[in-house]
From TrEMBL, chain A:
Residues 303-322 have a biased composition (Basic and acidic residues). Gene3D superfamilies: P-loop containing nucleotide triphosphate hydrolases (3.40.50.300). This is ABC transporter. GO terms for molecular function: ATP binding; ATP hydrolysis activity. Keywords: ATP-binding, Nucleotide-binding, Transport. Belongs to the ABC transporter superfamily. Residues 298-322 are annotated as: Disordered. Residues 4-230 form the ABC transporter domain.
TrEMBL record, chain B:
Keywords: Membrane, Transmembrane, Transmembrane helix. This is ABC transporter. The keyword Protease does not apply. One of its GO terms (cellular component) is plasma membrane. PANTHER family: ABC TRANSPORTER PERMEASE. The chain crosses the membrane at residues 20-38, 50-74, 101-126, 132-154, 166-184, 245-265. GO terms for molecular function: ABC-type transporter activity. It comes from the Archaea. The keyword Transmembrane helix applies.
Length: 322, 271
């Protein structure tokens, strides 16, 4: 049974805005799935439909095998959610927040241990109104973890966290996944999904443009591995193209760049060039996720029409932060 | 029980709000003033006069207390997004509306109870006799009246997507049903009789104004608890102006806004 399954899921706002368009998405039990895309791509709208905050125009959603509209109560018992940008209850303390969730879920967690785990134990008895954005995210994560959920749904979980906080968040997500929890989180930050996800899906303009493991996606795109050599002078008759596994060669000034099918071929390239001239520098790159991401969402994420954006995801100019 | 869990958490939250304490203390002040001036310089002060003064003058204040305490209960959470935390754990939307109604009612009714307790104590202290039956009756009717406005406020909050709309709705209801309550009758008379020429009787107009304003219905329902010598209802009143029927009107005001709120909130997009 997949943890999340949407079939032909569509959400329209009015006549002109198509926030989610015919989405078929499957998230398997036990995996960490990164839901990626620029702001306004339809990620939040999709999450809102998983949680029955927003009703689909057409199509269906099941979460943990339950229908997201008719059986939402069963779903809520089994999930933990970190909503994006939601404020907490300013007058309640961190401890009271966690106790309230535990009370509602009929769970009996060790509240101190939980707050310690998300790193806000020393602020446990302060009202959340005075919390920084990072502390709010930590508390939100702590609330999501109450009752050992089968599925964690996290909307932009690292927003407001410093690098150390992001690292701690990733560790917690891995621990939860090791426990067997399925983790589904949305992000527009590439480094985050690259570091922690088993599989990613990329949304753009309301459609899922691709899904797969990061290795799959890099292979599928065949971006190749490139190596650049800074040389004293570019020798003639190198005939690098004739090496097996070299797809293309470009020379720019004193820089020779070869794109290889397989990273192992790079050694052959270096040997061939070194035999002919003095190599001053070597720069080796694999196709990065950022490159991948831009390939899929290129020209879509930026400069979109405001009218195309889902109402809950206002388009901002600096959308894709690498 | 999710309703109880929503109510407990909300009670914990809202009892720390200063504005709620402020408006609630106004009612306490009215109680003290009415019972103080009811016996000040009077040779043989009557307890029921002070109690009626509290019920009557307090009735202007109760809608204000109830609306201020409850109008943001749901709309505020929708605007801030905290409703997403609320509905990500095993709470249904109906649980949220009913739980909030219970917690906000507890706050407002709690302050009414404190004010009445103080009024009762002052009655024993300053007045030659205390009419316990009338006191309990006035308290019960005041409580019912209070709950109708909490229901109205929760209903407004449940159908409003933002704080500003909820505030607009609450202010509109307050003005139409209390400050302008006396004009309702004039307006109805003008529309139905002067313009439409329906020739509605005075009794029919009285019923309509009572049905349209819980405050008017509350005033007429007080006939139930008045001592016989003070009864204001004329003996030849039609049945639909009897105080008993005003109780029915108040119960309708208690249930209908909540029901509309639940139905609308269950349909709402909370994106």
């Amino acid at each position: 049974m997949p943890a999340i399954e949407t079939t032909a899921l569509t959400k329209r706002y009015g006549d002109s805005v198509l926030a989610v368009d015919d989405l078929d998405l499957t998230v398997d039990d036990g995996e960490i799935f990164g839901f990626l895309g620029p702001n306004g791509a339809g990620k939040s709208t999709t999450l809102n439909m998983l949680l029955d905050f927003v009703r689909p125009t057409s199509g269906s959603v099941t979460v943990l095998g339950y229908d997201a509209q008719t059986e939402i109560h069963e779903i809520r018992k089994r999930i933990g959610v970190l909503p994006e940008g939601a404020t907490l209850y300013e007058r309640l303390t961190a401890r009271e927040h966690v106790e309230w969730v535990a009370d509602t879920k009929n769970a009996d967690p060790d509240v101190d241990a939980l707050l310690e785990r998300v790193g806000i134990l020393e602020d446990a008895d302060r009202a959340a109104g005075g919390f920084s954005k990072g502390m709010r995210q930590r508390l939100g994560l702590g609330m999501a973890l109450v009752g050992e959920p089968d599925l964690l749904l996290l909307d932009e979980p690292s927003s407001g966290l410093d690098p150390a906080g992001m690292q701690e968040m990733r560790e917690i997500l891995r621990e939860e996944a090791d426990r067997g929890t399925t983790v589904f989180f949305s992000s527009h930050i590439l480094g985050e999904v690259e570091a922690v996800c088993d599989r990613i899906g990329i949304m753009s303009e309301g459609t899922l443009v691709t899904t797969g493991t990061i290795d799959d996606l890099q292979g599928e795109l065949d971006l190749g591995a490139s190596i650049s050599l800074e040389v004293a002078s570019v020798p003639e008759d190198l005939a690098l193209e004739s090496l097996e596994g070299v797809r293309s060669v470009a020379v720019e000034g004193t820089t020779i760049t070869a794109t290889c099918v397989d990273p192992a071929v790079k050694v052959d390239v270096v040997e061939r060039v070194a035999a002919a001239t003095a190599v001053e520098d070597i720069i080796s790159e694999d196709a990065s996720l950022e490159e991948l991401f831009n390939t899929y969402t290129h020209g879509r994420g930026r400069g979109r029409n405001d009218s195309e954006a889902a109402p809950d995801e206002p388009v901002r100019t600096a959308e894709v932060e690498a | 029980m999710s309703i109880a869990s929503v109510a407990r958490k909300d009670f914990l939250d809202v009892r720390r709000a200063k504005i709620v304490w402020f408006v609630a203390s106004l009612y306490l002040l009215i109680a003290v003033l009415m019972f103080y001036f009811g016996q000040q310089g009077v040779d043989d002060p009557e307890f029921h006069n002070a109690l009626l003064a509290l019920s009557g003058n307090g009735a202007i204040l109760i809608p204000l207390i109830a609306l201020v305490t409850a109008y943001l209960a749901i709309a505020g959470e929708r605007e801030s997004g905290s409703i997403k935390y609320m509905l990500s754990i095993p709470n249904s939307r109906r649980d949220v509306v009913l739980g909030k109604f219970i917690s906000r009612s507890a706050i407002v009714v709690g302050s009414i109870l404190v004010a009445f307790a103080l009024a009762g104590a002052l009655g024993l202290l300053w007045y030659p006799s205390v009419d316990v039956g009338m006191f309990v009756g006035a308290l019960a009717l005041t409580t019912l009246f209070t709950l109708t406005y909490v229901s109205v406020a929760i209903g407004i909050s449940a159908v409003s997507a933002s704080r500003s709309r909820a505030m607009g709705g609450a202010i509109a209801v307050y003005f139409v049903t209390t400050v302008l309550a006396n004009l309702i009758r004039t307006g109805l008379d003008w529309v139905f009789n002067d313009i439409a020429g329906l020739g509605l009787s005075s009794d029919a107009l009285t019923f309509t104004e009572s049905a349209l304003s819980p405050m008017n219905a509350f005033f007429r329902s007080l006939g139930l608890v008045l001592p016989d010598d003070l009864a204001v209802t004329a003996p030849d009143n039609p049945w639909y102006l009897e105080p008993e029927l005003m109780l029915v009107v108040l119960f309708v005001w208690l249930l209908v806004p909540l029901a509309i709120g639940i139905i609308q909130f269950e349909r709402a997009n909370l994106g």
